[in-house]
Amino acid sequence: MRNKYITLLAIIFFCLQILLVNGVVYPAGAQDDRSLPSGQRGLSLEECIKLAVNNSFEVKLARLDFLIAETDLSAAEAIFDTILLANTAYSNSNLDQLSIASASEAETTTYSAGVSKKIPLGTELALSFSNTKTDSNSAYTLVNPAHTAEITLELRQPLARNVFGYVDRRSISLTGLAVQNADLDSKERIESLFAEVEEAYWEWVFSKRALEIYQGILEKARDLYRTSAKNYDTGLIEKGDLLASEANVLIREKDVSLADNRYRRAEENIKLLMNIDTACRIYPKENLQYVKKEINLTDCLQKAFQKRRDYLQAKRSLEMQDIVLETKANERWPEIDLVASMAANGINSKFNKAVNRMVNKNNKEYFAGLEVSMPIENNLARSEFEKAAHGRQEAIIGVKSIERAIITEVGNGFRNYVTYQANLDRLKEAVNLQREKLKQEEKRFKYGRSNTKRLIDYQQDYLSAELQLAIDILAYKVAAVNLEKTLNIILEKYEVLL
After folding, report:
1. Do 194 and 494 form a contact (C-beta atoms < 8 A)?
2. How many contiguous H segments (helices) and E segments (strands) does the chain have?
3. Is pTM, for the whole model, over 0.90?
4. Residue 101 burial by Cβ neighbours in a 10 Å radius (0-12, 13-18, 19+)
5. Cβ-contact 130, 358 below 8 angstroms
Protein backbone atom coordinates (compact mmCIF):
# COMPACT_ATOMS: atom_id res chain seq x y z
CA MET A 1 0.00 0.00 0.00
CA ARG A 2 2.86 2.34 0.89
CA ASN A 3 4.54 1.69 -2.48
CA LYS A 4 1.31 2.60 -4.27
CA TYR A 5 1.19 5.99 -2.53
CA ILE A 6 4.83 6.65 -3.43
CA THR A 7 4.15 5.72 -7.07
CA LEU A 8 1.08 7.97 -7.16
CA LEU A 9 3.01 10.91 -5.73
CA ALA A 10 5.78 10.39 -8.30
CA ILE A 11 3.24 10.41 -11.14
CA ILE A 12 1.63 13.61 -9.82
CA PHE A 13 5.04 15.30 -9.49
CA PHE A 14 5.97 14.24 -13.04
CA CYS A 15 2.72 15.62 -14.43
CA LEU A 16 3.25 18.94 -12.66
CA GLN A 17 6.73 19.22 -14.17
CA ILE A 18 5.31 18.65 -17.64
CA LEU A 19 2.67 21.32 -17.10
CA LEU A 20 5.23 23.84 -15.86
CA VAL A 21 7.68 23.20 -18.72
CA ASN A 22 4.98 23.57 -21.35
CA GLY A 23 3.80 26.87 -19.92
CA VAL A 24 0.36 25.60 -18.85
CA VAL A 25 0.75 26.48 -15.18
CA TYR A 26 2.54 29.50 -13.76
CA PRO A 27 2.22 29.57 -9.97
CA ALA A 28 1.86 33.17 -8.85
CA GLY A 29 5.04 34.52 -7.27
CA ALA A 30 6.96 31.31 -7.96
CA GLN A 31 8.01 31.72 -11.58
CA ASP A 32 11.54 30.79 -12.54
CA ASP A 33 13.46 30.89 -15.80
CA ARG A 34 13.87 27.12 -15.70
CA SER A 35 10.08 26.61 -15.52
CA LEU A 36 9.46 28.66 -18.67
CA PRO A 37 9.45 27.63 -22.31
CA SER A 38 12.68 28.13 -24.21
CA GLY A 39 13.29 31.81 -25.00
CA GLN A 40 11.43 33.30 -22.02
CA ARG A 41 13.17 35.30 -19.37
CA GLY A 42 12.05 36.86 -16.11
CA LEU A 43 13.04 40.48 -15.48
CA SER A 44 12.99 42.64 -12.39
CA LEU A 45 12.59 46.40 -12.60
CA GLU A 46 16.29 46.94 -11.98
CA GLU A 47 17.19 44.47 -14.73
CA CYS A 48 14.91 46.34 -17.13
CA ILE A 49 16.65 49.60 -16.26
CA LYS A 50 20.04 47.95 -16.81
CA LEU A 51 18.98 46.67 -20.24
CA ALA A 52 17.71 50.14 -21.13
CA VAL A 53 21.06 51.65 -20.09
CA ASN A 54 22.99 49.16 -22.21
CA ASN A 55 20.73 49.06 -25.26
CA SER A 56 18.72 52.27 -25.50
CA PHE A 57 19.56 54.62 -28.36
CA GLU A 58 18.34 57.55 -26.24
CA VAL A 59 21.00 56.86 -23.58
CA LYS A 60 23.71 56.61 -26.22
CA LEU A 61 22.58 59.85 -27.88
CA ALA A 62 22.38 61.69 -24.55
CA ARG A 63 25.92 60.65 -23.67
CA LEU A 64 27.23 61.61 -27.10
CA ASP A 65 25.55 65.02 -26.93
CA PHE A 66 27.31 65.69 -23.64
CA LEU A 67 30.68 64.57 -25.03
CA ILE A 68 30.16 66.88 -28.00
CA ALA A 69 29.30 69.79 -25.69
CA GLU A 70 32.34 69.00 -23.52
CA THR A 71 34.64 69.69 -26.47
CA ASP A 72 33.51 73.34 -26.36
CA LEU A 73 35.56 73.81 -23.19
CA SER A 74 38.76 72.70 -24.93
CA ALA A 75 37.89 74.98 -27.83
CA ALA A 76 37.47 77.94 -25.45
CA GLU A 77 40.78 77.19 -23.74
CA ALA A 78 42.48 77.15 -27.14
CA ILE A 79 42.93 80.93 -26.76
CA PHE A 80 45.90 80.10 -24.50
CA ASP A 81 47.44 77.57 -26.88
CA THR A 82 51.11 77.97 -27.80
CA ILE A 83 51.58 78.69 -31.49
CA LEU A 84 54.74 77.65 -33.31
CA LEU A 85 55.79 79.80 -36.25
CA ALA A 86 58.37 79.04 -38.93
CA ASN A 87 59.30 80.73 -42.19
CA THR A 88 61.85 80.44 -44.93
CA ALA A 89 62.33 82.67 -47.99
CA TYR A 90 64.76 83.09 -50.84
CA SER A 91 65.18 85.91 -53.32
CA ASN A 92 67.64 86.67 -56.16
CA SER A 93 67.49 90.17 -57.64
CA ASN A 94 69.20 91.54 -60.75
CA LEU A 95 67.01 94.62 -61.06
CA ASP A 96 68.44 97.95 -62.23
CA GLN A 97 69.23 100.32 -59.37
CA LEU A 98 69.22 104.15 -59.24
CA SER A 99 72.23 104.41 -56.95
CA ILE A 100 75.73 103.20 -57.73
CA ALA A 101 75.94 102.22 -54.07
CA SER A 102 73.20 99.68 -54.55
CA ALA A 103 74.03 96.14 -55.58
CA SER A 104 73.06 95.25 -59.10
CA GLU A 105 72.92 91.61 -58.08
CA ALA A 106 71.75 90.40 -54.66
CA GLU A 107 70.81 87.06 -53.20
CA THR A 108 68.93 86.80 -49.90
CA THR A 109 67.98 83.71 -47.89
CA THR A 110 65.93 84.00 -44.70
CA TYR A 111 65.15 81.40 -42.02
CA SER A 112 63.02 82.23 -39.01
CA ALA A 113 61.22 80.39 -36.22
CA GLY A 114 59.31 81.46 -33.18
CA VAL A 115 56.56 80.84 -30.65
CA SER A 116 53.69 82.99 -29.48
CA LYS A 117 51.38 82.51 -26.53
CA LYS A 118 48.68 84.32 -24.59
CA ILE A 119 48.73 83.69 -20.85
CA PRO A 120 45.70 83.92 -18.49
CA LEU A 121 46.72 87.44 -17.48
CA GLY A 122 45.97 88.51 -21.04
CA THR A 123 49.61 89.07 -21.87
CA GLU A 124 50.54 88.19 -25.45
CA LEU A 125 54.14 87.01 -25.72
CA ALA A 126 56.08 86.31 -28.89
CA LEU A 127 59.65 85.06 -29.16
CA SER A 128 61.32 84.74 -32.57
CA PHE A 129 64.74 84.01 -33.99
CA SER A 130 65.84 84.66 -37.57
CA ASN A 131 68.90 84.30 -39.72
CA THR A 132 69.19 86.30 -42.92
CA LYS A 133 72.03 85.53 -45.33
CA THR A 134 72.81 88.18 -47.97
CA ASP A 135 75.29 88.01 -50.82
CA SER A 136 75.63 90.96 -53.24
CA ASN A 137 78.11 92.60 -55.57
CA SER A 138 77.89 95.99 -53.84
CA ALA A 139 81.30 97.54 -53.17
CA TYR A 140 79.88 99.41 -50.20
CA THR A 141 78.87 96.36 -48.16
CA LEU A 142 81.09 95.93 -45.11
CA VAL A 143 80.52 92.16 -44.79
CA ASN A 144 79.81 90.10 -47.87
CA PRO A 145 78.41 87.52 -47.76
CA ALA A 146 76.79 88.32 -44.39
CA HIS A 147 74.72 86.41 -41.84
CA THR A 148 72.42 88.54 -39.70
CA ALA A 149 71.21 86.63 -36.61
CA GLU A 150 68.44 88.32 -34.66
CA ILE A 151 66.32 87.38 -31.65
CA THR A 152 63.23 89.35 -30.70
CA LEU A 153 60.91 89.25 -27.67
CA GLU A 154 57.59 91.09 -27.98
CA LEU A 155 54.95 91.76 -25.31
CA ARG A 156 51.43 93.20 -25.45
CA GLN A 157 49.48 93.75 -22.21
CA PRO A 158 45.84 95.01 -22.19
CA LEU A 159 45.29 97.68 -19.52
CA ALA A 160 41.63 98.58 -20.10
CA ARG A 161 39.45 96.34 -22.29
CA ASN A 162 40.23 92.73 -21.32
CA VAL A 163 42.42 94.08 -18.53
CA PHE A 164 44.82 91.36 -17.34
CA GLY A 165 42.86 88.78 -19.38
CA TYR A 166 39.58 89.35 -17.52
CA VAL A 167 37.33 88.78 -20.55
CA ASP A 168 39.31 85.73 -21.70
CA ARG A 169 39.07 84.00 -18.34
CA ARG A 170 35.39 84.82 -17.91
CA SER A 171 34.65 83.50 -21.40
CA ILE A 172 36.19 80.17 -20.43
CA SER A 173 34.15 80.16 -17.21
CA LEU A 174 31.05 80.84 -19.31
CA THR A 175 31.79 77.85 -21.53
CA GLY A 176 32.41 75.66 -18.46
CA LEU A 177 28.99 76.57 -17.07
CA ALA A 178 27.38 75.81 -20.44
CA VAL A 179 29.05 72.37 -20.41
CA GLN A 180 27.67 71.74 -16.91
CA ASN A 181 24.19 72.61 -18.16
CA ALA A 182 24.71 70.22 -21.07
CA ASP A 183 25.57 67.51 -18.53
CA LEU A 184 22.28 68.22 -16.75
CA ASP A 185 20.45 68.00 -20.09
CA SER A 186 22.03 64.60 -20.71
CA LYS A 187 21.06 63.33 -17.25
CA GLU A 188 17.52 64.68 -17.65
CA ARG A 189 17.06 62.72 -20.88
CA ILE A 190 18.37 59.53 -19.27
CA GLU A 191 16.17 59.98 -16.19
CA SER A 192 13.13 60.57 -18.41
CA LEU A 193 13.86 57.23 -20.06
CA PHE A 194 14.17 55.55 -16.64
CA ALA A 195 10.80 57.02 -15.63
CA GLU A 196 9.26 55.68 -18.85
CA VAL A 197 10.72 52.23 -18.15
CA GLU A 198 9.39 52.25 -14.58
CA GLU A 199 5.90 53.26 -15.70
CA ALA A 200 5.94 50.71 -18.52
CA TYR A 201 7.16 48.01 -16.12
CA TRP A 202 4.31 48.60 -13.64
CA GLU A 203 1.82 48.74 -16.49
CA TRP A 204 3.22 45.38 -17.58
CA VAL A 205 2.92 43.97 -14.05
CA PHE A 206 -0.63 45.31 -13.82
CA SER A 207 -1.55 43.70 -17.15
CA LYS A 208 -0.22 40.38 -15.89
CA ARG A 209 -2.20 40.71 -12.66
CA ALA A 210 -5.38 41.69 -14.56
CA LEU A 211 -4.95 38.61 -16.77
CA GLU A 212 -4.64 36.43 -13.66
CA ILE A 213 -7.79 37.97 -12.18
CA TYR A 214 -9.79 37.38 -15.35
CA GLN A 215 -8.43 33.83 -15.61
CA GLY A 216 -9.51 33.17 -12.01
CA ILE A 217 -13.02 34.46 -12.67
CA LEU A 218 -13.16 32.42 -15.89
CA GLU A 219 -12.43 29.26 -13.92
CA LYS A 220 -15.21 30.13 -11.48
CA ALA A 221 -17.57 30.77 -14.42
CA ARG A 222 -16.68 27.38 -15.90
CA ASP A 223 -17.24 25.68 -12.55
CA LEU A 224 -20.62 27.36 -12.34
CA TYR A 225 -21.50 26.23 -15.87
CA ARG A 226 -20.51 22.64 -15.14
CA THR A 227 -22.59 22.67 -11.96
CA SER A 228 -25.51 24.29 -13.79
CA ALA A 229 -25.34 21.65 -16.54
CA LYS A 230 -25.58 18.87 -13.95
CA ASN A 231 -28.40 20.60 -12.13
CA TYR A 232 -30.25 21.16 -15.40
CA ASP A 233 -29.90 17.48 -16.32
CA THR A 234 -31.41 16.51 -12.98
CA GLY A 235 -34.14 19.14 -13.27
CA LEU A 236 -33.01 21.28 -10.35
CA ILE A 237 -32.73 24.52 -12.39
CA GLU A 238 -34.48 26.07 -15.35
CA LYS A 239 -32.93 26.32 -18.80
CA GLY A 240 -32.63 30.12 -18.37
CA ASP A 241 -30.15 29.61 -15.54
CA LEU A 242 -28.11 27.24 -17.72
CA LEU A 243 -28.05 29.75 -20.57
CA ALA A 244 -27.03 32.53 -18.18
CA SER A 245 -24.09 30.51 -16.88
CA GLU A 246 -23.05 29.59 -20.43
CA ALA A 247 -23.21 33.25 -21.51
CA ASN A 248 -21.17 34.13 -18.44
CA VAL A 249 -18.39 31.74 -19.58
CA LEU A 250 -18.32 33.31 -23.05
CA ILE A 251 -18.10 36.81 -21.59
CA ARG A 252 -15.26 35.77 -19.28
CA GLU A 253 -13.41 34.11 -22.16
CA LYS A 254 -13.71 37.39 -24.06
CA ASP A 255 -12.34 39.25 -21.02
CA VAL A 256 -9.38 36.85 -20.79
CA SER A 257 -8.62 37.27 -24.48
CA LEU A 258 -8.61 41.08 -24.19
CA ALA A 259 -6.53 40.94 -21.01
CA ASP A 260 -4.00 38.64 -22.69
CA ASN A 261 -3.75 41.05 -25.62
CA ARG A 262 -3.16 43.95 -23.23
CA TYR A 263 -0.47 41.95 -21.47
CA ARG A 264 1.31 41.28 -24.77
CA ARG A 265 1.09 44.95 -25.72
CA ALA A 266 2.60 45.95 -22.39
CA GLU A 267 5.35 43.38 -22.92
CA GLU A 268 6.16 44.75 -26.37
CA ASN A 269 6.11 48.34 -25.10
CA ILE A 270 8.76 47.66 -22.48
CA LYS A 271 10.82 45.69 -25.00
CA LEU A 272 10.84 48.77 -27.18
CA LEU A 273 12.15 50.92 -24.35
CA MET A 274 14.85 48.34 -23.58
CA ASN A 275 15.58 47.85 -27.31
CA ILE A 276 15.66 44.05 -27.06
CA ASP A 277 14.65 41.30 -29.47
CA THR A 278 10.89 41.19 -29.96
CA ALA A 279 11.00 37.43 -30.57
CA CYS A 280 12.11 36.75 -26.98
CA ARG A 281 9.26 36.34 -24.50
CA ILE A 282 9.76 37.93 -21.10
CA TYR A 283 7.71 38.17 -17.92
CA PRO A 284 7.91 40.45 -14.86
CA LYS A 285 9.46 38.98 -11.73
CA GLU A 286 7.78 41.45 -9.40
CA ASN A 287 4.18 41.34 -8.26
CA LEU A 288 1.65 44.15 -8.14
CA GLN A 289 1.76 45.11 -4.50
CA TYR A 290 2.49 48.23 -2.54
CA VAL A 291 4.62 48.99 0.47
CA LYS A 292 3.42 51.85 2.59
CA LYS A 293 6.00 54.61 2.79
CA GLU A 294 5.57 57.77 4.78
CA ILE A 295 6.79 60.95 3.08
CA ASN A 296 6.78 64.60 4.06
CA LEU A 297 5.90 67.53 1.80
CA THR A 298 8.59 69.75 3.32
CA ASP A 299 11.25 67.11 2.64
CA CYS A 300 9.99 66.73 -0.92
CA LEU A 301 10.24 70.46 -1.54
CA GLN A 302 13.76 70.58 -0.10
CA LYS A 303 14.84 67.71 -2.34
CA ALA A 304 13.25 69.34 -5.36
CA PHE A 305 15.12 72.61 -4.86
CA GLN A 306 18.35 70.67 -4.37
CA LYS A 307 17.92 68.19 -7.22
CA ARG A 308 15.68 69.71 -9.90
CA ARG A 309 17.83 70.05 -12.99
CA ASP A 310 15.71 72.71 -14.63
CA TYR A 311 16.11 74.82 -11.47
CA LEU A 312 19.87 74.22 -11.35
CA GLN A 313 20.10 75.07 -15.03
CA ALA A 314 18.10 78.26 -14.54
CA LYS A 315 20.34 79.38 -11.68
CA ARG A 316 23.41 78.54 -13.73
CA SER A 317 21.97 80.45 -16.68
CA LEU A 318 21.56 83.46 -14.39
CA GLU A 319 25.19 83.08 -13.34
CA MET A 320 26.14 82.95 -17.01
CA GLN A 321 24.15 86.11 -17.71
CA ASP A 322 26.01 87.83 -14.87
CA ILE A 323 29.29 86.91 -16.53
CA VAL A 324 28.06 88.09 -19.92
CA LEU A 325 26.94 91.40 -18.41
CA GLU A 326 30.34 91.88 -16.73
CA THR A 327 32.29 91.12 -19.90
CA LYS A 328 30.05 93.37 -22.02
CA ALA A 329 30.58 96.17 -19.50
CA ASN A 330 34.33 95.68 -19.85
CA GLU A 331 34.09 95.72 -23.64
CA ARG A 332 32.72 99.29 -23.50
CA TRP A 333 36.12 100.44 -22.30
CA PRO A 334 38.78 101.65 -24.77
CA GLU A 335 41.60 99.39 -25.87
CA ILE A 336 44.73 100.55 -24.07
CA ASP A 337 47.63 98.17 -24.64
CA LEU A 338 51.14 98.35 -23.28
CA VAL A 339 53.46 97.28 -26.09
CA ALA A 340 57.11 96.44 -25.45
CA SER A 341 59.84 94.61 -27.29
CA MET A 342 63.52 93.77 -27.03
CA ALA A 343 65.77 92.72 -29.90
CA ALA A 344 69.42 91.73 -30.28
CA ASN A 345 71.39 90.92 -33.41
CA GLY A 346 74.79 90.04 -34.72
CA ILE A 347 76.32 90.26 -38.20
CA ASN A 348 79.21 88.21 -39.54
CA SER A 349 80.20 86.33 -42.64
CA LYS A 350 79.90 83.11 -40.63
CA PHE A 351 76.60 82.06 -39.08
CA ASN A 352 78.07 80.83 -35.78
CA LYS A 353 80.06 84.03 -35.34
CA ALA A 354 76.98 86.10 -36.10
CA VAL A 355 75.13 84.24 -33.32
CA ASN A 356 78.09 84.76 -30.98
CA ARG A 357 78.04 88.51 -31.64
CA MET A 358 74.28 88.54 -31.02
CA VAL A 359 74.79 86.91 -27.62
CA ASN A 360 77.99 88.60 -26.41
CA LYS A 361 77.89 92.07 -27.92
CA ASN A 362 75.65 94.83 -26.71
CA ASN A 363 73.73 94.95 -29.97
CA LYS A 364 70.32 95.45 -28.41
CA GLU A 365 67.21 97.47 -29.08
CA TYR A 366 64.45 98.28 -26.58
CA PHE A 367 60.99 99.62 -27.33
CA ALA A 368 57.98 100.53 -25.17
CA GLY A 369 54.75 102.34 -25.96
CA LEU A 370 50.99 102.64 -25.41
CA GLU A 371 48.36 101.97 -28.07
CA VAL A 372 44.86 103.41 -27.61
CA SER A 373 41.86 102.56 -29.74
CA MET A 374 38.13 103.15 -29.27
CA PRO A 375 35.14 103.77 -31.54
CA ILE A 376 33.82 107.28 -30.93
CA GLU A 377 30.13 106.30 -30.87
CA ASN A 378 30.79 102.80 -29.50
CA ASN A 379 27.28 101.72 -30.53
CA LEU A 380 28.07 98.01 -30.79
CA ALA A 381 29.49 97.72 -27.27
CA ARG A 382 26.63 99.75 -25.76
CA SER A 383 23.93 97.74 -27.52
CA GLU A 384 25.50 94.42 -26.49
CA PHE A 385 25.70 95.63 -22.89
CA GLU A 386 22.01 96.60 -22.94
CA LYS A 387 21.11 93.25 -24.48
CA ALA A 388 23.06 91.45 -21.73
CA ALA A 389 21.27 93.51 -19.06
CA HIS A 390 17.89 92.52 -20.47
CA GLY A 391 19.06 88.90 -20.70
CA ARG A 392 19.94 88.96 -17.02
CA GLN A 393 16.48 90.23 -16.09
CA GLU A 394 14.98 87.47 -18.24
CA ALA A 395 17.11 84.88 -16.42
CA ILE A 396 15.94 86.18 -13.02
CA ILE A 397 12.31 85.85 -14.11
CA GLY A 398 13.06 82.34 -15.38
CA VAL A 399 14.43 81.29 -11.98
CA LYS A 400 11.39 82.67 -10.14
CA SER A 401 9.02 81.01 -12.62
CA ILE A 402 10.64 77.61 -12.09
CA GLU A 403 10.55 78.08 -8.31
CA ARG A 404 6.81 78.64 -8.52
CA ALA A 405 6.36 75.65 -10.85
CA ILE A 406 8.33 73.40 -8.48
CA ILE A 407 6.10 74.28 -5.54
CA THR A 408 2.97 73.50 -7.58
CA GLU A 409 4.27 70.33 -9.25
CA VAL A 410 5.70 68.85 -6.05
CA GLY A 411 2.49 69.68 -4.16
CA ASN A 412 0.32 68.01 -6.80
CA GLY A 413 2.58 64.96 -7.03
CA PHE A 414 2.67 64.63 -3.24
CA ARG A 415 -1.12 64.81 -2.95
CA ASN A 416 -1.60 62.20 -5.68
CA TYR A 417 0.79 59.86 -3.93
CA VAL A 418 -0.66 60.16 -0.41
CA THR A 419 -4.24 60.01 -1.70
CA TYR A 420 -3.75 56.67 -3.45
CA GLN A 421 -1.76 55.37 -0.49
CA ALA A 422 -4.50 56.33 1.99
CA ASN A 423 -7.22 54.60 -0.05
CA LEU A 424 -5.39 51.36 -0.82
CA ASP A 425 -5.81 49.88 2.65
CA ARG A 426 -9.57 50.49 2.49
CA LEU A 427 -9.80 49.02 -0.99
CA LYS A 428 -7.77 45.99 0.00
CA GLU A 429 -10.18 45.32 2.85
CA ALA A 430 -13.11 45.74 0.44
CA VAL A 431 -11.59 43.09 -1.84
CA ASN A 432 -11.28 40.70 1.10
CA LEU A 433 -14.93 41.28 1.95
CA GLN A 434 -16.02 40.69 -1.65
CA ARG A 435 -13.96 37.50 -1.78
CA GLU A 436 -15.54 36.23 1.43
CA LYS A 437 -18.99 37.21 0.19
CA LEU A 438 -18.45 35.20 -2.99
CA LYS A 439 -17.26 32.18 -1.00
CA GLN A 440 -20.33 32.28 1.18
CA GLU A 441 -22.61 32.56 -1.85
CA GLU A 442 -20.85 29.63 -3.54
CA LYS A 443 -21.60 27.56 -0.45
CA ARG A 444 -25.23 28.67 -0.53
CA PHE A 445 -25.43 27.79 -4.24
CA LYS A 446 -23.96 24.38 -3.56
CA TYR A 447 -26.77 23.61 -1.12
CA GLY A 448 -29.41 25.04 -3.45
CA ARG A 449 -30.03 28.18 -1.38
CA SER A 450 -28.95 30.61 -4.11
CA ASN A 451 -29.47 31.06 -7.84
CA THR A 452 -27.29 31.45 -10.91
CA LYS A 453 -27.91 35.15 -11.45
CA ARG A 454 -27.03 36.01 -7.87
CA LEU A 455 -23.79 34.01 -8.07
CA ILE A 456 -22.84 35.65 -11.39
CA ASP A 457 -23.51 39.07 -9.86
CA TYR A 458 -21.29 38.20 -6.89
CA GLN A 459 -18.55 37.04 -9.23
CA GLN A 460 -18.81 40.37 -11.05
CA ASP A 461 -18.63 42.25 -7.73
CA TYR A 462 -15.48 40.37 -6.75
CA LEU A 463 -13.97 40.87 -10.20
CA SER A 464 -14.68 44.61 -10.09
CA ALA A 465 -13.13 44.92 -6.62
CA GLU A 466 -9.99 42.98 -7.58
CA LEU A 467 -9.56 44.99 -10.78
CA GLN A 468 -10.10 48.28 -8.96
CA LEU A 469 -7.47 47.33 -6.40
CA ALA A 470 -5.03 46.48 -9.20
CA ILE A 471 -5.86 49.73 -11.01
CA ASP A 472 -5.32 51.79 -7.86
CA ILE A 473 -2.04 50.03 -7.04
CA LEU A 474 -0.90 50.82 -10.59
CA ALA A 475 -1.99 54.43 -10.12
CA TYR A 476 -0.07 54.49 -6.82
CA LYS A 477 3.05 53.13 -8.51
CA VAL A 478 2.77 55.66 -11.34
CA ALA A 479 2.19 58.46 -8.81
CA ALA A 480 5.37 57.38 -7.00
CA VAL A 481 7.33 57.41 -10.27
CA ASN A 482 5.94 60.82 -11.20
CA LEU A 483 6.75 62.25 -7.78
CA GLU A 484 10.32 60.93 -7.96
CA LYS A 485 10.61 62.34 -11.48
CA THR A 486 9.32 65.69 -10.22
CA LEU A 487 12.03 65.58 -7.53
CA ASN A 488 14.66 64.38 -10.05
CA ILE A 489 15.77 61.52 -7.78
CA ILE A 490 15.18 58.56 -10.11
CA LEU A 491 18.61 58.71 -11.69
CA GLU A 492 20.48 58.48 -8.38
CA LYS A 493 18.66 55.20 -7.60
CA TYR A 494 20.28 53.57 -10.64
CA GLU A 495 23.49 55.60 -10.80
CA VAL A 496 25.54 52.47 -10.15
CA LEU A 497 24.19 51.01 -13.43
CA LEU A 498 25.43 53.94 -15.56
Report:
1. yes
2. 11, 8
3. no
4. exposed
5. no
